[in-house]
Amino acid sequence: MKKSQQNSRSKFSKSIVFSLVFLVLGFMLSYSYSLSKSQEAEGDFTGGAFFEQEERYRKELIEQQERNKELREELEEKQTAVQTFEQSFSEGESHNTDYAKEAEALRRVLGLLPVEGSGLTVTLQDSEYDPNSVNPNDYIVHESHIFQVINELYISGAEAVSINGQRIHANSRIVCTGPVITVDGVQYPAPFTISAIGKPDVLASSMQLAGGVLDQLVNDSVVVTLDEKQIISMPAFLTEL
Which residues are in coiled coils (predicted)? Predict the structure, then answer.
């Protein structure tokens, strides 16, 4: 009798163990299946959905650029029409001639109209690599050097200034990123040519003052070249270059 009870208990214990084993195996299989489905869904999202979103953004950017170009062309046409009207108005009304000239001069200073005239170009170039220099920034042109030149030119009476042919204005953003600079979103590698319209002799003399901008640039290992130009042409800063 006792032996029969022991056998019965042993079978019952084994059945409980097998039940627990099958339960754990079922849970593991279910979890593994759910995990694989989740990874497939994630792969689908990071694949197709990501590239669809990127393509949509690219199309929107192209459309916006085309719209900006159309607006710039429309603005240039209206500015030309206003300039023509002012010129004809000044010819018919002599007492308003000064106002028309002042308005045109103001637009030129603000960069709303292209300008042309004599002036000075200042070229800044990186110096040759010095193997004894620990810091490579010691022999490249930085935005601080460009700002020094621009400020000196404006103080000396420059009417308009451009960098590598791009007209700048009061709110222009100039940032140095390694060996290149970014001017209002457009990148330029060295050398950097800063052109200024004004009296060439006055601008050059101001740059070459003892202890002035030119001496400071040379001390910073920047290669500087000055050239008094007879004619310098600059576009309006809203014109696409």
Answer: 54-88
Query: What are the sequence ranges of the domains in the chain?
Result: 1-85, 115-234
Q: What's this model's pTM, rounded to 2 decimal places?
A: 0.56
Give kind and range of the element (H or E) at residue 19: helix 2-44
- By the 8 A CB rule, do 119 and 198 touch? yes
Domain 115-234, CATH number (from 3.30.70.1880, 3.40.50.880, 3.30.70.270, 1.10.240.10) = 3.30.70.1880
The residues pairing with 177 across neighbouring beta strands, listed in sequence order, are 180
- At residue 3, what is the residue type? K
Q: Which residues contact 136 (CB under 8 A, 6 or more apart)?
A: 129
Q: What is the pLDDT of residues 8-32, one digit of tens each?
A: 545 555 555 556 555 555 556 555 5
What is each CA distance from 68 to 7, 13, 64, 187, in whole angstroms?
A: 90, 81, 6, 19
